[in-house]
Amino acid sequence: MNILITGGAGYIGSHAVQRLLREGHTAIVVDDLSRGHREAVNQLDAHADGRLYFYESSVGDGTRMERLMLDHDIDTVMHFAALAYVGESVEQPLRYYHNNVSCGIELLAACDRAAVSRFVFSSSCATYGEPGDEHIPLTEECPQSPVSPYGQTKLDFERILAAWSTSRQIANEPVAVAMLRYFNVAGADRSGTLGEDHAPETHLIPVAIEAALGKRDGMAVFGTDYPTPDGTCIRDYVHVEDLVDAHVRAMDRMQLGTPRAYNIGMGRGFSVREVLAAVKRVTNVSFPVREEPRRAGDPARLFACADRARNELEWNTTVNDLETVVESVWHWMQQHPDGYASVAASTKS
Ligand code: UFG
Question: Quick check: is 150 catalytic?
């Protein structure tokens, strides 16, 4: 199939492109490179046998999106392009609404004009906000009440997709929509080609590994007084390759009609202290860890009940322990001390 992957030069999008190419699909990548990496796409292109196309563009350029969909006879859109920092969304909400909602609307309108009827959307567990303990593990039925503009933009786009789907059903041109609500995505592809390269990096596992590599002067644990067994926050760290496997299964199985949402997580919660212990075990490096106050907006416990994805998508995680997740990041960051800039440098030399 010919698949348009927005944000395909980014962390999760590039892993999806890699998997789709391996499955024999043709990947049409659109990325404005504001956060994505051209080198990620270049590396994939080297083994794509001409089945990878790259276009530098915002998805908000609806005319261009329509043209690409028609020119490439697109069957399915996988929409990863988004701004995704919770803290930044609090500081710059308009930018988040513009990028994650307004540009997404342009993309959907282009789908309408080009008669593209299959859409897979990257949503987030951030749409649930701060669920009470009675909702843990989180099912898709948990009330959605985001506490950040980021989470709100993801929920808004879910609602827009639902309205779009209804309108297309009324018009007798039904669409198939899957919405994947990610938990904490982590890890790197185990062949060593792709990884996580964010500036600034704020996610727990890469931050800890940067500390282990001596790239930062230790690190902080945000909050040690949560109502959890060791006082630190509990999260569900799903390996990025398992996450993209859920996309492929959702794409293959989604049905015309009402959009379907799926929680995508390992289904196990690990505390911040447990993650740091795993990083120290894998790297065999000890680094200074400071205890700091809570970070605003961090819920105490979030982990998924992924039964719906298991039952309906026949999906399962292949990585069910922290060590394997951490090892893949450790391997990538050792091989790429400057992220994708290391790839660019080795290509030039
Ligand atoms: N943490 C630290 N120190 C750090 C970084 C993180 O203690 O240097 C803690 C955080 O406070 C949190 C946990 O580690 O308790 C995980 O934090 P991350 O920043 O790695 O991830 P988040 O849980 O904040 O974010 C994830 C996704 C977001 C999504 C959010 C929903 O990355 O896209 O979950 O809560 F919106």
Answer: yes
